[in-house]
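Support case: iron/sulfur cluster complex. Customer-provided input:
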Amino acid sequence: MREKLVIIGNGMAPGRVLDELFDNGVDRYDITIFNAEARVNYDRIMLSPVLSGEKRFEDIIIHDDAWYAAHGITLYKGKPVMAIHRASKTVTAIDGSSVPYDKLLIATGSRPIIPPMPGHDLVGVVSYRDLDDVDAMLAAARRGGRAVVIGGGLLGLEAAAGLKERGMQVTVLHLAATLMERQLDSAAGHLLAQALRQRGIEVVTEANTRAVLGDSHVQAVELHDGRRFDADLVVFAIGIRPNTSLAAAADLDVARGIVVGDDLRTSDADIFAVGECVEHRGQCYGLVAPLYEMARVVASELAGNKAAYAGSQVSTKLKVTGIDVYSAGDFADGEGREEIVLRDAARHTYKRLTLADNRIVGVVLFGDTRDGAWFYQQMREARDVSDTRDTLIFGQHYAGGAALDPTAAVAALPDDAEICGCNGVCKGKIVKAIAGQGLKTLNDVRAHTKASSSCGSCTGLVEQLLKSQLGAAYSVDAVPAMCGCTRLGHDQVRRLILAKELKSIPDVMQSLEWTTSCGCAKCRPALNYYLLAAWPGEYQDDAQSRYINERAHANIQKDGTFSVVPRMWGGMTTPAELRAIADVAERFAIPAVKVTGGQRIDLLGVRKQDLPAVWAELNAAGMVSGHAYGKALRTVKTCVGSDWCRFGTQDSTGLGIRLEKYLWGAWTPHKVKLAVSGCPRNCAEATCKDFGVICVDSGYELHFAGAAGMHLKATEILCNVATEDEVVEYCAATLQLYREQGHYLERMYTWAARVGVATVRDTIVTRADLRAALVARFDKAQHYARHDPWAQRAHGRENGEFRLMARVARPRVSA
Ligand SMILES: Cc1cc2nc3c(=O)[nH]c(=O)nc-3n(C[C@H](O)[C@H](O)[C@H](O)COP(=O)(O)OP(=O)(O)OC[C@H]3O[C@@H](n4cnc5c(N)ncnc54)[C@H](O)[C@@H]3O)c2cc1C
Ligand code: SF4
Ligand code: SF4
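Agent response - structure generated as follows:
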């Protein structure tokens, strides 16, 4: 019979205990987890990137619902445990339900401290601990205004930077004379304050808060010396306290935290405790690395093996993009202590090593933190540094006086050298995973060991490890950058445009730290499209960021003239339209008139300066641009269908016209072509289009992701639907999904292959809610897009583009 393991709390520590258990094939428990938070297990240390918009919540989930299901774990979300009954070996949850245990694991984490000062309970006062706090801060940031963060430690500064990114005016009030005084010395604290001020964050030190002021909502914060700071939001980040109330009520030994021995057992041998709620050898921890070391021991004990935890040394890194700070150990001055300091004022770098007995005992790095892990390793090993002391401060590359090959340096590290501080992963584990599981890429290592999956500062080290293990077989799998102006890939840029609410090209370039002043021919058109797609109606299209064809709303041909294609809805035309086209061709001496493959008429050889007049005349006859030049909806090809054809079952022409009138004007990552055939004979060739419809007896067969250009690609079947309305709905949803996920210049079939045809199908066909939301977003965008660019430009707008430049006589040159 399997034993019952009950876990109280579902934070980072028990998540790791379970990973360790399953990794070691332990399968002796029926596991039940109670979590007060109404969500799965996530990477709490990545809340700051969620706050600042660099990540979404989905990106920081450690174990999703499917993981719990796959391991047969019963997870109660939003259901705190209220009592532990040791005599009956049961726990009781808030709804009165009771669950028995053989082994109990308490992992209740910490509570943020909010001192009972006047006004601490006003609306607008929040702490910084979980996703609800982040959501509250984001809601406040959307309203704008001022935020006061009380506490200039790790968390407070991350909150301040995140709120600033979100557009609030931010003040940090800190009690001590310098920021992060427990982790940094005063020089580094000073540099940190300077860097924050340069980012527009007000930093006030020696600020002793007396009260939060306001009637029902916060209005200001008052200091003991009478100074006041206006506030619409107040964030308390002044510290945490182990969450011990349950354990204390159950009469377990509790001091500052729940007291545990080296085996992580509490004063009751069947009850373990792990994580921030624990006190071990008089020490409580507030960072993940120690919790992961504890988790290994708990897992071992739960598996029936003996293990011991001997305490941890910790290092700290600030996760504020662009500000690099690292600290580890104890760097206070003291008897017998020596220090090595390197300052480079121009580069804003500061490094300090504290030595005792020729061993590193403390490290503080500001501005250049690359050697943090290397110093930390030497500190943990208590390595004698007498031989390397002269060049020690210059870091690993110059250890011993000569530049060191970084791969050789990583190869030389011992197996227990910590590589990833966030996730507590050592070199040995990564090497074992690379060899044992045939890992080839950084993503592989992330997936199997979690190394480099949080703050990413160890990515370089992991890559060096891969290189040292695989040699030439190592393939870098970093997401390819959009272009040379940025390190970010298309998806990252699109996500950040939304998350950071970036609404212009200069905004994107500034916020996402473009390395060029104005971008290049690759990124500008892409950004223009991404902004158009993200902010319909709000974003001002930037003509200068479009290719010449889109700027001129006509196709440039090899002799420098243009070709003009008016829209013919569903391939239909009228004598009046044909007459107008003929008139225009004659009046402007257009040399060629051709029927295109997409059932339209192409006027070839139009001079650029004639374009506005040609458009105006075609407009006067009721015709609009066919977007034959655009990364946009182009044609909807049709057959004659049931109106004329003996085989047609539906009105394919009418449906084609309806689709084109609904979809036209939509900008897309690349060109988009549709077709509607009136029966499976498929005369409109719908099975090589981006979206194709084939009328069948039972209704309509929908296809997508085909192409007949440079690459031939038959469509994929999307689904069958019964009505014309559904055709229009499914088509709009598919187009919008492509609009939202496609990389600029990526055809629909390439996009579908990248994200997965089945995923697209699942989103559009099985998820009615997602489909409806996509259609709603498409409708919103179309409200602004369905305007004829010819009409908008024929009379004035951007007219300069089409004015003939002066003719200059060529000077005679005598021989
Ligand atoms: C914003 C932020 C940034 C951070 N950044 C870093 C960093 O950069 N580096 C670093 O090392 N560490 C960082 N930390 C600290 C790190 O996240 C914590 O050390 C770690 O999450 C603690 O893990 P835990 O499992 O002990 O507790 P938690 O992850 O806090 O989980 C405890 C869980 O128990 C639940 N719970 C409490 N009581 C009950 C009950 N009675 N019944 C059921 N459930 C209950 C809580 O709801 C919570 O979900 C950060 C923390 C925060 C908040
Ligand atoms: S596809 Fe069918 S309905 Fe359309 S023209 Fe061809 S045979 Fe006729
Ligand atoms: S198929 Fe090639 S040559 Fe022909 S019109 Fe298109 S781009 Fe030009």
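DSSP finds 27 helices and 40 strands in the chain.

Case will auto-close in a few days if no follow-up is received.
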